[in-house]
Amino acid sequence: MPDVISLPQQQVPVVASCDVLVVGGGAAGISAAIAAARQGADVVLVERYGYLGGLASGGLIVLLLTLDDGDGRQVVAGQCQELVERLAARGACFYPPAGEWGARDEGLIAGYRRWGLVWGSGPHRVRYSVAYDPEELKYVATTWVGEAGVRLMLHRWASDVVFELERPHGRPAGRLSHVVFTSKAGRQAVRAAQVIDASGDGDIFALAGEAYDSERVHPWLWFRMAGVRAPDERASEASSHGDRDAFAFRTLNPGQALLPWGAAERIARRIDATDPDDLTFAEVECRRMVMDEVDRLRAQAPGFEQAYLTDVALTLGITESRRLRGAHVLAREEVDHVFPDAIASTGHWTKYGAVYHIPYRSLLPLRASNLLAAGRCISVDHRVHHATKEIPACFATGEAAGIAAAQALRSGRAVQDIDVPALQSALRRAGAWLPDLTCGE
Ligand SMILES: Cc1cc2nc3c(=O)[nH]c(=O)nc-3n(C[C@H](O)[C@H](O)[C@H](O)COP(=O)(O)OP(=O)(O)OC[C@H]3O[C@@H](n4cnc5c(N)ncnc54)[C@H](O)[C@@H]3O)c2cc1C
User: CA 117, CA 102: separation in Å to the nearest integer?
Assistant: First the structure.
């Protein structure tokens, strides 16, 4: 018999009502909220921490890999492209100019490798990937959602949902009427017509009883050091020989290096990122390993003699946890396949010329008629997730989810029944890149 307690029934105040509720303010959530608001929806964006960006800021994952297909063609545009332009306007990012994408020039490739913009096994080409500053991303994202008219609610942790059963044996079976958040002010509910799960871990679809797959992963903890002598000359060809010192990437700040090495692969075990005990273990171990690595670099790595730690990621680097098992699970064999309901595309950060065209069905749950998934928790298999979890892809699926939610609201239809060609047209009008749909089935 498990040791449990019963809590008294509680009345929870409804602190907001909205057309579209986006849970999670990472890459996908930012994009979804802005896209829905630009369609005229009244949008609330709720985030558990005090800043926007998720892994793309607090996780110090400050590399947009990749907006191209590896052959020189841009395949992620829309709001991700707008993000690059907004960062560029503030001098807060670095990327190869369009004329170089797809180039095989070894000198260029070596230069971009020092920024962390070249990955995988060769033969390499220059990619459209972007290095940026995490604090600038937080600022740009907060300003951007404000301009779009999104109502931002920080410091609230989604912990429950109210699911109204409509068709007990049908599909979809019902709808979410409220999401409940826990905060310093106690429990609070937000009433929403449409909900987008951009929590990364799929917290909302798990609470709603949707099917999902789970993955255990090695946690990472990225960090940055300043006072590094000539960090621009450090990340060298040695990286392809597994030299850990080589993973010290240039940043936009002179003398500062980004160190993605952290603890992954060296930590004793994989963790379930939805288990707080596993997370506690990982936080303690990763922080110890980062400090070991700082000491090792200072003692052994040329250029690091006077270097010092400036920041450790605020949040563990979790590549994967829950993935929705939705209306379609995009599979590795479906690479380059153009589905009639494609709503976003992504290249692969370690492969050249491989593109996944993400069907709308990969955002669709089976039970709830007003819930969509966006970002790293969408319905794909483990191998495809390597590509769809990347920040540009999360922006792209977020944008599609935002427009789809607004469309479901306007039409009064279930998200499963919206007019997909109209969604695709709206995405194109918004500047998103979609494949030629006549090439598919
Ligand atoms: C080690 C590592 C290296 C990577 N390298 C790269 C790279 O170089 N380039 C690249 O493009 N991508 C990279 N990625 C992938 C990429 O960083 C993430 O997959 C992507 O940022 C995920 O975006 P997201 O919005 O889906 O989720 P997240 O960034 O996880 O955002 C989810 C947000 O929801 C919030 N949230 C979660 N649960 C709740 C809740 N219950 N209530 C309220 N809020 C909640 C979180 O605080 C967070 O802000 C890497 C990932 C890792 C872990």
Answer: 13
Which numbered atom of ligand 1 lies nearest the CA of 398? 25
Name the residue of 270, 391, 395, 399 to mutate for ligand 1: max ligand atoms within 8 A of Cβ: 391
Render pLDDT for 94-130 as a digit per residue (tens, 0 to 9): 999 999 999 999 999 999 999 999 998 889 999 999 9
Look at residue 350 and give its three-state secondary structure.
coil
In angstroms, what is the span from residue 55 Cα to ligand 1's centroid?
4
CB atoms within 10 A of CB 385: 22
Best mutation site among 94, 95, 222, 389 for ligand 1 pocket (most ligand atoms within 8 Å of CB)? 389
Contact between 436 and 338 (Cβ < 8 Å): yes
Q: Which atom of ligand 1 is nearest to the CA of 317?
A: 53
Give the residue from 392, 375, 416 showing the smallest Cα distance to 22.
375
Nearest residue (CA) to ligand 1, atom 37: 199
pTM beyond 0.90: the answer is yes
Distances (CA, A) of 51 to 46, 55, 133, 143, 153: 11, 11, 14, 12, 10
CB of residue 46 inside a 6 A radius of ligand 1: yes
Q: What is the pLDDT of residue 264?
A: 61
- Which CATH architecture group holds 14-68+140-215+322-439? 3-Layer(bba) Sandwich (3.50)
What pLDDT, in 10s, does the model give residues 191-242?
999 999 999 999 999 999 999 999 999 999 999 999 998 755 554 433 433 4
